[in-house]
Design the sequence.
């Protein structure tokens, strides 16, 4: 409905199944008198990747209500940030999301740069695009691994983890750490790209573009996988936008919106890439959007690497910034692997923020789990919630 | 949903005009950037402004509801996005809430996505959202009787 | 007439087992032969020692008489049959771990003997664990059902004949007996799931029952088809019929594939492990079983996997005979049988590595809308072949 | 730009005729099985084999004891307060201040190595830090030593000044330790010499600027530009906040 109509999607949209729940819950329950029971999945449950609970009310195998419970990991991140100088928040921002730590660090640095009124050098921006996309790939591969285990296949888990390891190595090459990278700085990045990094990352990209087809063959060419994901957790685009769902889940319903293209930050407007959009609005569409995003990330990395190379070895990559930030209110948005993340900073002229608020995409996405899970079967619950790609570090903050 | 339009620099002025026309001096514009509109709204008008934004201007995504403790008063900040008519546009609405009467009308009936954000703001700042379907503790334990993100709540620790 | 015993060799003699009047089988039985010879050695030595102390006592005589030899030989027979099956199952467990590891680009278990000793270590670990039991379970059903699941699995695993000389029973309806015991477990699982007072277990038990009605009927039709083709319910007869004509997976290729999938479901292996669906129902019907009980359940799972593979070997792959080698088949048919079983198990492992778990409604659809027609088609083909006089 | 994957799979591979189509995954699995049986899997046998790590890998912090000047920049920048300065004897037995790192708190962010003005603190590639008690995790200055420090492990801040960048002279990179210098607010100074005593590089000398009403000399610190490493020690110890760091932008 929202994507441009000249694309092929319109042609195929007619063949898609009508958007209705798998089972008509109201009719089913009217027919027979059965007892419903609450099944509490979590906080220690194989399907909850992290510490959270999903209470589902089941009628036999059919879910009639769902209620997520979060907060087991609440650390008071925002309050703690109010008591530290600006540079010391960067390692903390790494800990917001373990799968794609650099996106949050980048977001934090962008917010403070905005408050300082400076624009980081081009080289830093392109390096951060590379780093962001590496992290997007890592996060998506971790999600792919989780999809494998959630649907009961361990092979996909390990194959995806194997590919993720190469991107982890790229992280190590770039900044010396695998997960909590502490790489972006206010006004640039920590260090220049190391020697031979461009060669390594192009190799890694080319390897991945080939290797991902194996995993795709394992999932998309397997009728069991596809039938497990198709027609489950269907949302309409109106519902999706209203519930605040962002990211691949939103694009899977047909809303053509990507912050990288529609609200460009950090030189993303200089880079040519496609935003995958599908109209089905089911778990399989969300899956396909994410896989295509991984392939697009590879293209972005190649282009950004070419731009970094063109800028030369001596181009500046880190600006010196004052330690005190002038008073004001600023926010920045960024397309996280999981959706739209946002930081809102109120500075009061000292070297510590007055208030720093993080908008986490998962926090809002997971609040829609009732609408996602209604009418599906228990076996579908992991398949549907896997497409949300839970990450508790940012949810509970 | 409405049709998609590509970005045009006249959008911000457009939004300002439409909002001013409808709400007059209840809404005060404090700034403007590319794809950003900043406004300050009176407390009693916030629900109507949000409804107008959603229904008429097709701002269908409420990104964020933020509570801020300004010591003398409190603030609620809304970030509202559009996916279609004003694609990529973000409106920031700020509402002042007095300390002794921290009530503001809930917008979770307009945007389902505001539901948890408002719950979080209530539990951390004590700002009550009238008409919220379920104003309960979400992140902190239910036994908490204080609002930990207020400035009056001091951190204890090494730093 | 009292014999004169002078040396140990007089006590330990290996008579023809068939000559024993109490010999419990009709044909030659290798494990019984081994057991009897073992008892001849053990019992003969004991008898000789006692006779040294008390010459001419009746106990020594009793220890080597026909009836006693038969009795103790049967006890040893049980142990021998069980041990061979047990080691076979441990090898299939090891095979699964290694093959699954290699398909996932990792190494599998690495503890001793190319990882085989990991089975021993795991067994040790589960036996050492504290045997916890939730307070509110229905104690009797909780213990009994799991014992029955383990017990029946072990029983059928031992009852599978490894060759025409390595068997426990040789009924004419031996196949039906095995299938009857094989299909019992889902009932126990259902009751066990209820008895644990746990929602996951309850749903898991329900799923086991739900699943059984979907795969059991096509499976029984397929078995009946194979028996029809061979003209007998006797396992030896089926194998011999295949040796005389051809392995049945050639004429019954549809049935072979269908039976393979059904056997996967019967053994509750990964595409069909709904009853213990790990991602949604923590450990399914096994959730509340801890320590040794859980270890035995795991072992029972592999026993059922072994039985499934053995059934496929018997019904479709020609059992313990290899074609074209004639009399060479008489040397180690048991090993041939086990190797074929492990080969089928390898295929099961590959399927496990490649496919995710199906949903409950999907397996019902699959059972009734795909396997049922396929098995009927298979039956029709066999009937046509029979009527055409090919078999 | 094209979307290869979506073009291929948009409609979904599965239709009713192919409901049982599972052969491609099985083929892929067998292919990998074949490969890993002939060659070896990608996993490594960890305690016996280890991955190659690049020079800039961030394991535990390592300290070159004699290169350290005890300025405390690492302790100041540590986001988890894992580092404290302790007194310990140097090679000649004189008590000096050196950092001590609590590995139980360390978050391996690398700030200590980055901000160290003399590159005495580096990040070593050691990651195996398990100990039996928490007290064992506290690494004293001597225990922090690491013998195989290479140039690749040293990380320096190479910042471009904002003024340079805006003037188009963006290629000049500079370490803030070379530009930022403490500046004295003369009115606040009480001539207590605390900055002079605490300066780790003896960059501060007390210069006399007349006498006060009581006849005592008025001593104001003056900073030697060459020696100063801009470590904030004097700023921190100043009891009247008379010194502040002048950030050159």
Sequence:
């Amino acid at each position: 409905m929202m994507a441009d109509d000249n694309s092929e999607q319109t042609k195929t949209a007619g063949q898609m199944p009508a958007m209705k729940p798998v089972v008509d819950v109201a009719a089913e329950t009217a027919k027979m008198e059965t007892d419903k029971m609450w099944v509490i999945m979590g906080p220690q449950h194989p399907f909850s990747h992290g510490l959270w609970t999903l209470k589902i009310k089941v009628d036999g195998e059919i879910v009639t209500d769902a209620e997520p419970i979060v907060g087991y990991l609440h650390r008071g991140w925002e309050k703690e940030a109010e008591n530290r100088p600006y540079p010391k928040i960067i390692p903390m921002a790494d800990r917001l999301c373990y799968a794609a730590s650099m996106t949050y660090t980048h977001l934090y640095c962008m917010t403070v740069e905005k408050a300082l009124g400076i624009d980081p050098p081009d080289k830093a921006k392109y390096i951060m695009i590379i780093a962001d996309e590496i992290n997007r790939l890592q996060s998506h591969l971790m999600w792919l691994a989780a999809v494998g285990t959630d649907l009961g296949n361990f092979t996909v888990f390990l194959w995806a983890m194997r590919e993720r390891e190469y991107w982890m190595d790229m992280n190590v090459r770039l900044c010396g750490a695998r997960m909590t990278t502490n790489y972006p700085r206010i006004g640039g990045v920590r260090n220049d790209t190391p020697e031979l990094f461009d060669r390594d990352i192009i190799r890694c990209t080319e390897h991945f573009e080939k290797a991902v087809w194996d995993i795709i063959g394992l999932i998309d060419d397997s009728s069991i996988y596809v039938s497990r994901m198709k027609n489950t957790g269907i949302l309409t685009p109106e519902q999706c936008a209203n519930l605040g769902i962002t990211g691949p889940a939103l694009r899977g319903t047909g809303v053509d919106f990507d912050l990288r293209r529609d609200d460009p930050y950090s030189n993303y407007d200089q880079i040519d890439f496609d935003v995958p959009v599908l109209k089905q609005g089911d778990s399989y569409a969300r899956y396909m959007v994410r896989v295509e995003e991984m392939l697009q990330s590879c293209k972005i990395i190649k282009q950004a690497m070419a731009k970094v190379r063109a800028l030369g070895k001596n181009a500046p990559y880190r600006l010196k910034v004052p330690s005190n930030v002038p008073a004001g209110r600023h926010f920045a948005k960024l397309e996280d692997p999981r959706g739209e993340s946002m930081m809102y900073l109120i500075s009061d002229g000292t070297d510590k923020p007055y208030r720093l608020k993080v908008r986490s995409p998962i926090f809002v996405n997971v609040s829609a789990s009732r609408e996602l899970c209604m009418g599906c079967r228990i076996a579908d619950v992991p398949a549907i919630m896997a497409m949300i790609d839970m990450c508790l570090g940012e949810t509970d903050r | 949903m409405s049709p998609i339009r590509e970005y045009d620099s006249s959008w911000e002025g457009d939004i300002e005009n439409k909002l001013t026309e409808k709400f007059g001096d209840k809404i005060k514009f404090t700034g403007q950037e590319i794809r950003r509109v900043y406004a300050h709204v009176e407390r009693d008008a916030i629900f109507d402004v949000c409804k107008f934004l959603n229904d008429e201007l097709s701002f269908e995504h409420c990104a964020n509801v933020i509570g801020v403790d300004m010591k003398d008063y409190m603030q609620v900040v809304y970030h509202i996005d559009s996916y279609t008519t004003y694609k990529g546009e973000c409106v920031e609405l700020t509402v002042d809430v007095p300390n002794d009467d921290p009530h503001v009308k809930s917008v979770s009936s307009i945007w389902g996505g505001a539901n948890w954000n408002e719950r979080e703001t209530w539990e951390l700042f004590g700002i009550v959202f009238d008409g919220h379907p379920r104003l309960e503790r979400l992140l902190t334990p239910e036994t908490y009787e204080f609002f930990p993100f207020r400035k009056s709540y001091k951190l204890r620790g090494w730093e | 007439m009292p014999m004169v015993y002078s040396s140990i060799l007089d006590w330990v003699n290996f008579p023809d087992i068939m000559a024993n009047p109490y010999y419990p089988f009709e044909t030659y039985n290798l494990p019984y032969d081994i057991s009897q010879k073992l008892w001849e050695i053990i019992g003969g030595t004991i008898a000789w020692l006692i006779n040294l102390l008390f010459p001419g006592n009746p106990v020594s005589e009793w220890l080597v008489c026909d009836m006693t030899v038969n009795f103790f030989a049967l006890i040893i027979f049980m142990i021998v049959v069980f041990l061979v099956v047990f080691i076979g199952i441990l090898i299939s467990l090891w095979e699964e771990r290694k093959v699954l590891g290699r398909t996932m680009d990792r190494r599998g278990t690495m503890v001793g003997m190319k990882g085989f000793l990991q089975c021993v270590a795991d067994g040790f670990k589960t036996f050492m664990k504290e045997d916890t039991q939730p307070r509110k379970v229905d104690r009797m059903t909780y213990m009994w059902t799991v014992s029955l699941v383990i017990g029946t699995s072990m029983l059928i695993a031992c009852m599978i004949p490894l060759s025409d000389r390595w068997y426990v029973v040789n009924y004419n309806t031996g196949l039906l007996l095995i299938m009857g015991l094989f299909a019992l477990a889902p009932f126990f699982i259902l009751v066990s799931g209820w008895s644990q007072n746990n929602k996951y277990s309850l749903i898991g038990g329900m799923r086991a029952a739900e699943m059984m009605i979907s795969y059991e009927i096509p499976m029984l039709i397929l078995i009946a088809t194979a028996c029809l083709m061979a003209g007998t319910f006797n396992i030896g007869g089926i194998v011999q019929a295949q040796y005389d004509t051809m392995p049945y997976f050639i004429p019954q290729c549809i049935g072979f594939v269908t039976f393979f999938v059904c056997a996967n479901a019967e053994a509750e292996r990964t595409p069909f492990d709904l009853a213990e669906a790990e991602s949604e129902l923590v450990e399914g019907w096994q959730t509340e079983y801890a320590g040794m009980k859980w270890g035995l359940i795991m072992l029972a799972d592999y026993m059922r996997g072994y039985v499934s593979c053995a059934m496929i070997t018997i019904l479709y792959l020609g059992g313990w005979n290899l074609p074209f080698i004639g009399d060479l088949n008489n040397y180690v048919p048991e090993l041939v049988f086990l190797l074929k079983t492990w080969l089928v198990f390898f295929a099961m492992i590959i399927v496990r590595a490649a496919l995710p778990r199906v949903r409950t409604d999907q397996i019902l659809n699959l059972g009734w809308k795909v396997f049922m027609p396929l098995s009927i088609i298979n039956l029709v083909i066999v009937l046509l072949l029979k009527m055409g006089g090919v078999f | 730009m094209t979307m290869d994957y979506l073009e291929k799979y948009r409609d979904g591979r599965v239709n009713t005729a192919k409901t049982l189509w599972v052969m491609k995954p099985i083929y892929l699995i067998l292919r990998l099985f074949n490969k890993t049986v002939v060659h070896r899997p990608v996993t490594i046998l960890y305690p016996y084999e280890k991955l190659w790590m690049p020079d800039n890998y961030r394991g535990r912090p390592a300290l070159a004891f004699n290169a350290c000047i005890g300025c405390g920049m690492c302790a100041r920048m540590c986001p988890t307060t894992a580092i404290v300065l302790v007194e310990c004897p140097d090679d000649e037995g004189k008590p000096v201040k050196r950092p001590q790192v609590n590995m139980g708190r360390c978050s391996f962010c690398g700030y200590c190595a980055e901000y160290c003005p003399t590159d005495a603190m580096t990040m070593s590639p050691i990651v195996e830090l398990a100990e039996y008690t928490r007290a064992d995790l506290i690494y004293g200055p001597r225990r922090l030593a690491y013998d195989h420090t290479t140039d690749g492990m040293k990380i320096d801040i190479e910042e471009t000044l904002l003024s340079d960048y805006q003037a188009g002279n963006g290629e000049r990179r500079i370490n803030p330790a070379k530009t930022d210098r403490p500046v004295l607010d003369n009115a606040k100074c009480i001539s207590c010499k605390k900055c002079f005593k605490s300066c780790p590089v003896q960059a501060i000398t007390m210069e006399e600027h007349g006498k006060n009403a009581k006849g005592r000399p008025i001593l104001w610190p003056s900073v030697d530009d060459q020696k100063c490493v801009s470590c904030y020690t004097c700023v921190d110890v100043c009891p009247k906040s008379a010194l502040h760091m002048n950030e050159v932008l």
User: Anything to note?
Assistant: Chain B touches chain D through two residues (CB under 8 Å).
